[in-house]
């Protein structure tokens, strides 16, 4: 299977989104974390309404998310991480975040990535599996690679807040 380098990086970070929604749905409380450095401001995400349109709008985003969740639940590498997940909430928050980031006017109601992922001990291997599943879901909806990459570029910065080991 061909996977472009940019797609892998972006999908890896998109996986963090899924795990965020999953851990929120499970009601996991974030672990305490101390840092010696002062927090830095994160750049604002510039939303592009044309991306929402190019993705196919809300109906396609909903289908991609449904396919993505189904693929994750069938994936032996990661399905165990969703054992106690409220799948309805997972689906809802993923749709919200994809729609919000792509400029569709939705509001993401989930918690920040860093808070949700603290204490989960997530590895890059978990994300690589999610990356593959998301790519398959977007391919199934015939979303062109260049459009996928635009979404993935918006999701990529989330990786640093989610992989903890």
Overall description:
- By secondary structure, this protein is mainly alpha-helical.
- It is 58% helix and 0% strand.
- It is built from seven helices and no strands.
- It has helices spanning 5-26, 49-55, 57-74, 87-101, 113-117, 124-140, 145-155.
- Helix 3 (57-74) packs across helix 6 (124-140).
- The longest helix is centred in the N-terminal third of the chain and has 22 residues, at 5-26.
- It starts with a helix and ends in a 10-residue tail after the last helix.
Sum up the structure in keywords:
165 residues, mainly alpha, disordered N terminus
Class based on secondary structure composition and strand pairing: mainly alpha
- Summarize the biggest pleated sheet: none
Instruction: Tell me the number of helical segments per DSSP (H or I, 4 or more residues long).
Output: 7
Report strand %.
under 5%
Please state the average pLDDT score. 76
The low-confidence runs, each spanning 5 or more residues with pLDDT under 50, are: 1-6, 8-43
Radius of gyration: 15 Å
- The end-to-end span amounts to 27 Å
Task: List how many beta strands DSSP finds.
Answer: 0
Spatial shape: globular
User: How much helix, percentage-wise, in residues?
Assistant: 55-70%
Reading the helices and strands in chain order gives HHHHHHH
């Amino acid at each position: 299977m061909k996977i472009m380098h940019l797609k892998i990086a972006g999908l890896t970070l998109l996986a963090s989104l899924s795990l965020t929604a999953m851990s929120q749905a499970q009601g996991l409380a974030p672990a305490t974390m101390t840092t010696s450095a002062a927090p830095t401001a994160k750049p604002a995400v510039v939303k592009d309404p044309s991306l929402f349109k190019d993705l196919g709008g809300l109906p396609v985003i909903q289908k991609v998310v449904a396919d993505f969740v189904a693929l994750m639940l069938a994936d032996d590498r990661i399905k165990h991480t969703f054992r106690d997940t409220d799948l309805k909430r997972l689906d809802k928050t993923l749709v919200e975040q994809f729609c919000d980031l792509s400029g569709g006017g939705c509001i993401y109601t989930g918690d920040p990535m860093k808070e949700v992922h603290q204490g989960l001990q997530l590895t890059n291997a978990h994300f690589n599996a999610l990356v593959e599943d998301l790519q398959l879901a977007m391919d199934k909806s015939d979303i062109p690679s260049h459009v996928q990459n635009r979404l993935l570029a918006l999701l990529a910065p989330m990786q640093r807040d989610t992989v903890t080991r």
